[in-house]
Amino acid sequence: MSATVITNIATLVTNDPSLRDSDPLGPVRDAAVVIEGDRVVWTGESSKAPATDNRVDAGGRAVLPGFVDSHSHLVFAGDRTEEFNARMSGRPYSAGGIRTTVAATRAAGDADLEANLTRYLTEALRQGTTTFETKSGYGLTVEDEARALRLAARHTDEVTYLGAHIVAPEFADDPAGYVSLVTGDMLNACAPHARWIDVFCEKGAFDGDQARAILTAGKAKGLHPRIHANQLSYGPGVQLAVELDAASADHCTHLTDADVDALANSSTVATLLPGAEFSTRAAWPDARRLLDAGATVALSTDCNPGSSFTSSVPFCVALAVRDMGMTPDEAVWAATAGGAAALRRTDVGRLVPGAYADLVLLDAPSHVHLAYRPGVPLVTGVWRRGVREV
Ligand SMILES: [Zn+2]
Question: What is the pTM of this model?
Fold first, then answer.
């Protein structure tokens, strides 16, 4: 198998804390990375790099792990331009807008749904995302949810069953009946295609008892839980996530001190999704408070056509630094190793021997530029599984 060295890297972010004074980013100056097959086999100073068949000169620019976007909703049809325009013109956000996307998604053919999914994956890849999670949740029937998961599973291993996104319109007068469907026939049809189960635990969606029943049923079928928690209001989502050892509690915008403590004393990651607050003009989640308490924080896009229609992790990094109290180092860690932790993965989100060769080359000398130069397309090279894609 032929090896490739990427050399002349001004700043290499490895996320290996053992490399330099326990710095979580494990930065290496004047660095090189050696790739063989789909894996990283060596990292270190350029001058010490082993001989290889192929050589790429990074030109004094920065290399970091590919972004791990651990929260997106990419199996959908239609868009919600009018809703966004109305909201930005003064109308408040309500979870009901999801029904618009449900109707469009149900009406779409498989080929159109997959073409839409592929379009946004390509868009995300160009911006440095090499691992992504995506969910169902716009079908809300047994067949439409299973279809969404089948399509998603062709493109990623990180597939999440979100039949409990909202109560299906047909069950508006019988939410208990819908929970029975989500935990019964729908779960049976969906579980073979998914790794994760998720629930939107929020007023107007599913309460704590319903969410517990749904996630517990999923666990019994071998799915691992994650939760849309505490996004629009205080609620039981975060505590439930910790109680059920969910990999992640996502949003975490409205947290009590007890919620922060629970996250800090658990292996549940707090995944912050600032694209949602940006796109709904809502208050930002307080990343600083979570980090200071000792919680693990991830940053992801929540890419969806209603409340956060961005596929750009760099944009989320810039928001987190500007408005959520994160340092540039913390935000970059959260968007790479943090996302991996939220998916309970150690083979992505870091550049160490044995990890997947998923790399981003920035047209900048350091990762700090992701926040320093917001909105600028700095991603100039992307390798995924050892293959240069961008
Ligand atoms: Zn979401």
Answer: 0.97
